Amino acid sequence: MHDFQTDSLRIAMLAPVTWPVPPEGYGPWEKVVYNLTEELVARGHKVTLFAAAGSRTSAELVKTVPHPFETWPKEERETTAQLDPATGLLVGPPDFRALEQLHIAACMEAVRFGTFDVVHSHLHVHALVFSRLIPCPIVSTLHGAAWVKALHPVFDHYRDQTYVALSEAEKELKPDLNYIATVHNGVRLDEFPLCGDKEDYLLFAGRLSPEKGADRAIQIAKKAHRPLRIAGMIEPQHQGYFNEKVEPHLDGPNITYLGCLSQKDLARQYQRAAAVLFPISWCEPCSWVGIEAQASGTPIIGTKYGYLPELVREGETGFLVDSVDEAVDVVRRLDEIDPKACRANVKERFSVETMAEGYESVFRQVSTSKRSV
């Protein structure tokens, strides 16, 4: 049984509205929100979740928009903007920018009477503009937002506000912000069962974009003479990358594209994989893939970018490399890795309990500081 503090906090959890909470497949930020919200409720806190309709939670749920944006009914989303002669109005697809403002406003109106101790925002910079207008502090988790240089002017204007980084590496993207803590993403271990019986295939999971390195994963697998399974979303802006760098190599038995999998299906792929390839070329803040794979007892072979040096214990839970050839070399050493060590690494540092404890400490600190002003 958890030994929780008795003084509960009143937390307004401001979720993204791109996907439902929890997401059925892709939706990394929404997954953070769900895992954290459920654990905070279990710890005795009063959490109000502001999210799209279709979300589910044990917290109080405020449905701010009728659908998550990515699952909005297709016939409405793809409607062509045109004049309606009967009304004189311009009709067309939903304005997601306006709907996100409505979503944020619902949260800000709810907290304006001082009935919450803290707002926890997962919305890039978009809630920051309210941070000096409400009676309780806003804690913003970056989720990689500082990677987008176009957002820096907003960060600069609100750099004194309270930020949480997902990794020490993420801070390097915008080091001048007021970081109160680093809190890694945390998984529910029971959703990713430990498996010590591995097959010979390698796995790449994640968005199919150049910085994620699916093309480099293909090179590694081919040179190592190992089958490769690829799972992940193809975003419209990266369709050309997939068509040119990935699709020509798909041949069924050796290089296979599995599509964008549900969490349960992806968990099964983690369990049996000999290793998960993570040849990123950008500052990945704290991807779920690496953590979920380790929870399943599966080693990581990755580059030294982003949070990977914080996750991978070299030679114990995986290997960090500088090139495709180095990655090929360590594929031969995978039998040195004990699956139990991979899982223990996550249980100790990347569990949902550890994540909740980190945020709980942040919330207590900022709410106490606010009351003492």
Which structural category do the helix and sheet elements fall into? alpha/beta
The CATH superfamily label of the largest domain reads Glycogen Phosphorylase B
User: What would you call the shape?
Assistant: globular
Number of strands: 15
Structure description:
- The protein has 373 residues and is α/β, with parallel strands linked by helices.
- 34% of the residues lie in helices and 16% in strands.
- The chain is built from 13 helices and 15 strands.
- It has helices at 28-42, 74-77, 96-111, 152-157, 168-171, 214-224, 239-246, 263-272, 288-295, 308-311, 324-331, 339-349, 352-372; strands at 10-14, 46-51, 60-63, 82-84, 89-91, 118-121, 138-141, 162-165, 179-182, 202-205, 228-231, 255-259, 275-278, 300-302, 318-320.
- It has a seven-stranded parallel β-sheet, with helices on both faces.
- Helix 1 packs across helix 13.
- The two termini are 36 Å apart.
Descriptors for this entry?
373 residues, alpha/beta, Rossmann fold, seven-stranded parallel sheet, 15 strands, globular, disordered N terminus
Write the layout of secondary structure elements.
Elements: E1 10-14, H1 28-42, E2 46-51, E3 60-63, H2 74-77, E4 82-84, E5 89-91, H3 96-111, E6 118-121, E7 138-141, H4 152-157, E8 162-165, H5 168-171, E9 179-182, E10 202-205, H6 214-224, E11 228-231, H7 239-246, E12 255-259, H8 263-272, E13 275-278, H9 288-295, E14 300-302, H10 308-311, E15 318-320, H11 324-331, H12 339-349, H13 352-372
Parallel strand pairs: 1-2, 1-6, 2-3, 6-7, 7-8, 8-9, 10-11, 10-13, 11-12, 13-14, 14-15
Antiparallel strand pairs: 4-5
